[in-house]
Every structure is written in C-alpha cells, then in structure tokens.
C-alpha cells in the first residue's frame, strides 16, 4: 500500500515538473522569462522549455499594435478658454522586457505624458489656432510621446485628436460669428455679382453706343459720298444741257441762215416784212409812241444802191447771190431724229451701279477701310471729268454723237 502511494506521488511530481518545464506562448504575445528572480530572456510565439522551479514566466506582453483612447482632458488655451480634448494614441511594444521593468504601468504613463504634452502645446495657441491646427498638435504630441516612451520599449505610431469641445457659450459665440461671416461673404458676393453685372451692362451699352456711332458715321459718309456723286452728276447734266442748248441754238441759226440764203430773199421782201411787223410791235403794253424817221427810206435807198444793180429802166434791183449745195442741203434737211439721244453714258451707269452696290453692302466693322475702298472705286469717275474745253466738247460729243455735225 505504501509503495502504491509513493508511486502516485512520484507520478504527480513528474507531471508537475513537466508542466513547469513547458510554456506555450501564443502568436502576437511575448513572455519575459526570469531565472531565480532575474531576467534571462524574452520568448514569443511557440513552445518554450523552462527549468522547473528555477525559471518562471514573469509576464506576457501583447506585441500587437494597440489603440488606446483617453477620456477628455480640460486644457486652457492662450486666450484663457477651457476646452475638452479627446486623444487617441496608437502604439506598439517592441521591447517587452523594458515595458515590464522600465515602468510600472505603461498605459498610465502614456496617458499622463500625452496630457502634459497636450497642455503644453495647446497652452501656447489661441482657440482659433487650436481648432485649425490639428495636424501640428498631432505631430508635436507624437514626437514628444515617442521620445519619452522609447526607454519603455514602446513605439508611438500615431496620435490623433478625436474631439475638441469648447464651452457652450463659446460654441454659441462661434456659431454667431460663423453666421455673421457667412452673411458677410454672401453680402460681398452679392455686391460683387451686382458690380460685375453693372460692369457688363455698362460695357454692353458702351459697345452699343460705339456701334451706333460707327453706323451713324458710316451712314453720314455714305450720304456725303452719295450727295457728292449726285452733285457731280447734276453738274455734268447741267453742263451737257447748256452745251446742247448752245448747240441747238447754233443749229437753229444755221438752219435759218441757210433757209434765208436758199429762199433768195430781196430787200423789198425784208422791208415789207418789217413794215408788216411794225403794228404788232406797237401793240406792246410798254409801247407808248412810235416815230418812223424820215431818213428810213433814204437808208433803204442807200442799201439798195450798194448791194443792188441798176437795170435798163434805171431801177436798182437786188440780185441774190448763188446758193451752194451744202447750204441748200442744210436748208432742205429734215433729219433731226439723232439730234437728241436719251441713252445713258456707260461710265455714269457704272458709277450708279457701284453706288448701289456700296449702299446695299452690310455695314463693315471698320468704316475707315470701307471708306478707303469706296474712294478707290470712285477715283476713276473723278479722273474722267474733263478739265479743258476741248475735253468738255469731246465728252459732250461722246454723249450726243450727232451734235458734232452742227
């Protein structure tokens, strides 16, 4: 019986020794091994053999990256305003033995260092800078924490400000300020829009007035050119009319002279015609009294003696001169169909067509170019005007070819 008990005790002892000799460390954890109360090594991820009753596992450390959120901390800004700030710290333990032997509680240490650093950083900023400088605060907190926790075997990978809560009264003031700023920006934008609209409207009116003035200028130029061409044409017509009138009078005088020569009138007939017309001359309203001089018959007698010849009876008789063939043909000619021609001159027709083309042409954006082009088109007409009587006679002869015969 005693032997059985001893065997059981021995088996139990062997089992305890085996258990004490084996340590199973999960993946993502590290175990700090002590031998007789002194640190020997750090093991992680697997089966570890220990010396029974001599080696022991002091602590197991989670080596995964951890995210710790600390409660809101009251921080006073440079402008003496208290704000509540929440911090989120992301860290990882790289040296588990330092985290065990270097600090009592590394979580509390990280929290306290974070709060102290946060108060130091925010204390040098105003509330507005604190609200708009999250990245600066995060970077400074991470640098300070990483430098302070390196001796603890920690690596600070990230620090974030989760929330910055100013006092309610400050929040209301900020809301009012933001509302006022938005209303100010809206008013400024409205004024800017109105100003731009006014500028655009003024520019449009300016352009319209400029275009209207250009159109009026162009119309005035065209009217002046048209009036100038009309005056030139009227002057040409009046000159041609006067020339034709003179030509007609000359033809009429030639015709009368030729008829008189061809009729072989004698002084007796002329005297008879003169005496026959005297009563009609006396019937005029302005004629009060007519006196026939006594020397009138003597004058007729002297005229007859000078141009007449004395016949056998002693009477002076006028013998008309012989009429040549040219005078007889001129007196007997009745072909007057080609004396007056109503056909337009080709040059005048071309000028009128050019003026109509310019009048129907749309308004050009640059009136000066149009004016120059129009002057170039009208220059041949101006140069075609005769400057000497010979040229004037030649031009009239071109207008009315049949007048050259007179």
TrEMBL record:
Q: Where is the Band domain?
A: 20-178
Transmembrane stretches in the record are none
Please give the chief subcellular localization of this protein.
membrane
Q: Biological process GO annotation list?
A: proteolysis
Polar residues bias (residue ranges): 385-395
Segments carrying the region annotation (Disordered) are: 359-406
Q: Where is the signal peptide?
A: none
Q: Does the keyword Protease apply?
A: yes
* Pfam families per the UniProt record, alphabetical: Band_7
UniProt entry keywords in alphabetical sequence: Hydrolase, Membrane, Protease, Transmembrane, Transmembrane helix
Q: Which SUPFAM superfamilies match?
A: Band 7/SPFH domain
Q: According to its record, how does it sit in the membrane?
A: Single-pass membrane protein
Q: Which ranges of the sequence are coiled-coil?
A: none
Locations listed in the record:
Membrane
An example Gene Ontology CC term for this record: plasma membrane
Alphabetical list of SMART domains matching this protein: PHB
Gene Ontology MF terms in the entry: peptidase activity
| Highest taxon in the source lineage | Bacteria
- What family does this chain come from, according to its entry? Belongs to the band 7/mec-2 family.
**Under which name does UniProt file this protein?**
Protease subunit, stomatin/prohibitin-like protein
